[in-house]
Amino acid sequence: MKKTRAVVQTAPRKLELRDLPVPEIDEDSALLRIEACGICGSDAEQYAGVLPAPYPVILGHEPLGIIEKIGDRAAKRWGVDAGDRVAVETLIPCGHCRACLQGRYQVCRGRGGMFGYSYVPVSHAPGLWGAYADVMYLDPHSIVHPMRKEIPASTAVMFNPLGAGFRWAVELPGTGPGDTVLILGPGQRGLASVIAARAAGADTILVTGLSRDAKKLALAKELGADHVIDVEQENARKRVKELTQGRGADVVVEVSSNSTVPVAEALHYAATGARVVLAGVKGFKPVADFVSDLIVVKEITILGAFAVTSRGYDSAIRLIESGRVPLERMHTHDFALEDAEEAIRTLAGESGGESSIHSCLLPAS
C-alpha cells in the first residue's frame, strides 16, 4: 500500500512524523500533493494545547498543492483536473445545516462540531485530514480555488492569511474610501489587513504593535500603512486621536494574539459609529477593564470574525496573481516537513532565533 509522511500531534507539544496509508478515492473526492502549507498562529495554539484538538490529528490547515488524483464528479464540480494547482479552504462545510443554508458556512457545525483540515482525527477515515504531509485527502465537500503555477509556492500559500485580511478588515466591517482603519497587531494577519484595507481604498491606515515588533511595524508601512504606533513607547490613545483629528478610527481590527488588553483599548480608539472587528484568539480569557458604556454612547458595532469566506479567498488570490503587492516581503522562513516543530516554535517566538512573520512547510524540499 502506498504511504505518505504526515506530522501527527498526539498530545500538547508532542508531534510524530508517521508514515500513513494513502487511501483510494471515489468519484467525488481527490488526493492533493502538498506543495506548501502555511504556518498559522492557531497552529502554535493547537501545538501548545490552548486550542483543543481531537488527538491524534495531522496539523496544517492552509494547503496549497497539485491535484494528484481526482474522481470524475469531483473534477466536474470543482472545475479542476489532475495536475492543476489549487488552494484549499480550511473548513469543510456540510452544506445542509442552518448556518450553511443561511450562507454562513464558515461557522458550520453540521458535521459534529468544527470540521476542517487540521481538526479531524486520524481515526476518522480516510485519515489524511491535514496539510503537514506529502499528500492530503480532499473531501467531497471541500472548497478549492485554482491558482496559477508560476507563482512561487511560498507566496501563493499566503492566500489564507491574505484572505483573512480581506474578510476581517474589509468584508465584515464594510471598509471603503474615506475610512480610517486601525489594525491592532502587526503579525501576518495584521499585515494582511493592511494590504486588504489599502486595496479597498481606505483613506488612512494605522497599525499598533510592541517595541519588539519594530521590524513588523516598518514592514506595515512598506505594505501601505500611513502611521505605526509603538504602544510601549507612545500614548496610543492620544496618538490615535491626534492622527484622526480627534474622531478616532472608523474601523478597528483586533488581530493580536493572547493579550486581552487590545480588546479593551479598541473601544477607546473607536470613533462614534465605528465598527470593531475582534479576530485575535485569547485562550478564552476574560477581558479586564472592558468599558461597555463606550459601546453604548458611541454606538459601536462589534463583529466577531471566525475563519474566512470564499469571497475573501477570491480577493486574496486575485491580488496574489496580480503581482501588484510585494508579498514576498512578508515571507521569512521555509521549513522541511520533518522540521514542523521548529517551524511552529519559530512562529511562536520560542526558538530563540529571528522571529517569523509568515512561514511555511515545503514537504518536497
Written overview of the protein:
It contains twelve helices and 16 strands. The protein has 365 residues and is of the alpha/beta class. It has two domains: 3-158 and 330-361, Quinone Oxidoreductase, Chain A, domain 1 (Alpha-Beta Complex); 161-304, Rossmann fold (3-Layer(aba) Sandwich), CATH 3.40.50.720. The strands form three sheets. Strands 3, 5, 6, 7, 8, 15 and 16 form a seven-stranded mixed beta sheet that branches. Strands 11-10-9-12-13-14 form a six-stranded parallel beta sheet, with helices on both faces. Strands 2-1-4 form a three-stranded antiparallel beta sheet, with no helix packed on it. A hairpin with a 2-residue loop joins β1 and β2 (14-21). The chain starts with a strand and ends with a strand.
Radius of gyration: 20 Å
Q: SSE string, helix = H, strand = E?
A: EEEHEEHEHEEHHEHEHEHEHEHEHEHE
Any idea what the CATH architecture of the largest domain is?
A: Alpha-Beta Complex
State the total count of DSSP E strands: 16
Could you name the CATH homologous superfamily of the largest domain?
Medium-chain alcohol dehydrogenases, catalytic domain
Unreliable spans are none
Biggest beta-sheet profile:
7 strands, mixed
Output the number of helix runs.
12
CATH class of the largest domain: Alpha Beta
Strand content: 15-25%
The name CATH uses for the topology of the largest domain is: Quinone Oxidoreductase, Chain A, domain 1
Structural class call reads alpha/beta
The tally of structural domains comes to 2
Give the fraction of residues assigned to helices. 25-40%
The 3D shape can be described as: globular
Distance between the termini: 24 Å
Overall pLDDT score: 96
